[in-house]
Design goal:
Elements lengths: L3 H13 L2 E4 L6 E5 L5 E5 L2 E2 L4 H7 L2 H10 L7 E5 L1 H6 L6 H11 L3 E5 L9 E3 L2 H11 L5 E5 L5 E8 L2 E9 L2 E3 L6 H14 L11 H9 L13 E3 L11 E4 L6 H13 L4 E8 L10 E7 L5 H4 L3 H18 L1
Antiparallel strand pairs: 1-2, 2-3, 3-4, 5-8, 6-7, 6-8, 9-10, 9-14, 10-13, 11-12, 14-15
Helix pairs in contact: 1-11
């Protein structure tokens, strides 16, 4: 459990004109009291801003994709399938066998991901039957629903919306290392992990992650490989900050048409506070063209972005100051 939001709210309370009461044992839940006595609550990044129904639907990728698609938003082509036990329980034929039949029709490579997990957990690019079944079975150990989706390429962004305004936008880049000409990939990852700790970034690189091993194997590399100076090696296909990805702030240059899309999407999904993840064909400083909604998040955590440096700290503090005022 990470008390990041609690600590930040405590720090910003005076500036926001509120008082903050944090539960002392675990320090991850709290009460915000406004000047008028109004009380609101939070738990980690789950804040008292969005309604329960909208929050629950946004946490379910299949449900949120259904509503987004029905409203005309461009979602990633794919379908949801169930673990064999759950499919049997709900009397559905959409089990792991049906998932593989669909995957062959969709065409490899493709993406698989758990339906209700966040932070890039279980998201994997698969190339054929063996790794498809292996990753799907792994997903079904902690989620009874999995998504099988077509791969979409482009530039990965998160746009954060609060009450009809863009308060943050950044490009997300997958976990990678940049060669120095003398260190192995493993050593470079160890250096990166130490940098995360130094920056107080709550990210732990999982050296045993099978997705990293698979990504290296696909590039005919191993942890022992020594990249030449400035050679960038990507180690995951998902760009989540929680799995070691990097963030580049693009808020000042975000094109208004992309901001308008994100604001409209958040409103249509009934969310006051929302992280909209988009894959754009063009960079975000250009007018909106072809795009896909990767997913939406009613509790966007950006503590890993906060740890990017002094500039990022100021951006995140300003963001949460606006959130705190909105809650009060």
């Amino acid at each position: 459990m990470n008390p990041f939001v609690s600590e930040l709210f405590k720090k910003l309370a005076k500036r926001a004109g509120v008082s903050v009461n944090i539960e002392p044992k675990w320090k991850v839940v709290g009460q915000i009291v406004g000047k008028n006595g109004k009380k609101t609550y939070f738990r980690n990044t789950a804040l008292d801003l969005n309604t329960l129904g909208a929050t629950e639907i946004s946490a379910d990728k299949d449900y949120s994709n259904y509503f987004l698609k029905s409203m005309g938003y461009q979602t990633i082509p794919g379908k949801a399938f169930y673990s064999d036990s759950w499919a049997k329980n709900i009397k559905s034929r959409r089990n792991i066998g049906a998932a593989y039949t669909y995957a062959k029709k969709l065409g490899f490579p493709l993406m698989v991901k758990p339906n209700s997990k966040s932070q890039g957990m279980g998201v994997a690019k698969v190339y054929g039957r063996t790794d498809f079944l292996q990753n799907l079975r792994a997903i079904f150990k902690y989620d009874r629903v999995a998504l099988v989706q077509k791969i979409v390429t482009g530039h990965d962004y998160r746009i954060v919306v609060l009450d009809g305004k863009i308060i943050s936008a950044y490009q997300r880049l997958p976990l990678s290392v940049s060669g120095d000409g003398k260190s192995s990939i493993r050593q470079l990852l160890e250096i990166k992990q130490k940098q995360f700790i130094k920056l107080r970034r709550d990210t732990k690189i999982n050296f045993k992650d099978t997705r990293i091993a698979a990504k290296l194997k696909k590039q005919h590399l191993s942890f022992k490989f020594i990249p030449v100076k400035n050679q960038v090696i990507y180690l995951l296909d998902n760009a989540n900050l929680s799995t070691g990805g990097d963030a580049v702030d693009i808020t000042p240059t975000l094109h208004k048409t992309i901001g308008q899309l994100s604001i409209k999407l958040a409103r249509d999904m009934g969310l006051r506070f929302c992280g909209v993840d988009l894959m754009l064909a063009e960079t975000a400083d250009k007018p909106l063209g072809k795009y896909h909604v990767i997913e939406i998040n009613a509790a966007p955590g950006i503590d890993n972005y906060f740890a990017g440096g002094k500039k990022q700290e100021k951006i995140v503090e300003q963001l949460y100051l606006q959130v705190l005022k909105s809650m009060a």
